[in-house]
Amino acid sequence: MRGAESKTCGGRSWDITGCVLRRADHFMVREKFLEKVKAGEAGEKLSRQDICFLLTTQETQEQDILLKASDRVRQEFLGDEIHLRAVVEFSNICVQNCLYCGLRRDNRELVRYRMTLAEIVSATQEAAAMGFKTAVLQSGEDPWFTRERLSDLIREIKETTGLALTLSVGERTYQDYRDWREAGADRYLLKFETSSPLLYKYLRGGLELTHRLNALNWLKELGYEVGSGNMVGLPGQSDEDLATDIEFFRQYDYDMIGIGPFIAHPQTPLAGARNGEFEKTLRVLAITRILLRDTNLPATTALGVLQEDGRWKALSAGANVFMPDVTPITYRRHYQIYPGKAQISASEEAIANRAVSLGRRISAGSGFRSHSHKSSGPNS
Ligand code: 5AD
Ligand code: SF4
Question: What's the pLDDT score for residue 368?
Answer without folding.
Answer: 86
